[in-house]
Amino acid sequence: MSQPVERRLGYRVRSAVGPWLDRAVRSVVPETYRVYPSAYAGTFENPIEDLESRLSEYGFRWNPVSMYHYTQLGNQTNGSWVYRESPLADRQLHAVLVRQESDRIDVYAHEEFNWRRHPLKHLQDAGIDRDRGSKRMRRVLDELDAEYVEESYVRRKASHLLRRLRRRPAGGDRC
What pTM value is reported for the model? Predict the structure, then answer.
């Protein structure tokens, strides 16, 4: 089965089960699955499928067991990809994709313990390195000849606010 078909099937399953699982876990564990500005690697300016295809060819694997992530701007993520030197490598590079528009994907990344080898350390966010992960992800994007830009947090936040205002119906929802 090809990667895109696996991703679509896995994505549908995760979309159906994920919100329930997310609520259950957050009722027990404080929400720690946010994506932080320090993990921002860049904004890819093509459809998400193009970036996912490139990541897959590079050796990243779609990560269907990853918990839902949220940005500080309130956006839910659209994809979670992991790169490991080997299946039981000590650490992994975790890339989180957030679709802003059909051809604008914010890419966040962090380096962390591989959940397959260190499940407790991984769950506790021990040794997570957002700065190193974002820099490493930029190098990957450069190697992939992926067109991306690095935008400041303020610019991304302003763009997000403008998109929300455009979606709001005329006259607003006033009570």
Answer: 0.76
- Count the alpha carbons within 13 Å of 147 in the hemisphere toward its beta carbon: 6
The rounded mean pLDDT for the chain is: 80
Q: Nearest Cα to 159, choosing from 45, 33, 50?
A: 45
The edge-to-edge listing of strands for the beta sheet with 61-62 is: 61-62, 79-83, 91-101, 104-113, 40-44, 148-149
Query: What is the Cα–Cα distance from 75 to 72, expressed in whole angstroms?
Result: 7
Which residues have a Cβ under 8 Å from the Cβ of 7 and sit 6 or more positions away? Answer: 52, 62
The more confident residue out of 101 and 38 is 38
Q: Is 90 exceeded by the pLDDT of residue 63?
A: no
122/128 Cα distance (integer angstroms): 8
Distance CA 46, CA 158 (A): 21
Residues 6+ apart with CB under 8 A from 122: 112, 113, 114, 115
For 75, other C-beta atoms within 10 Å of its C-beta total: 17
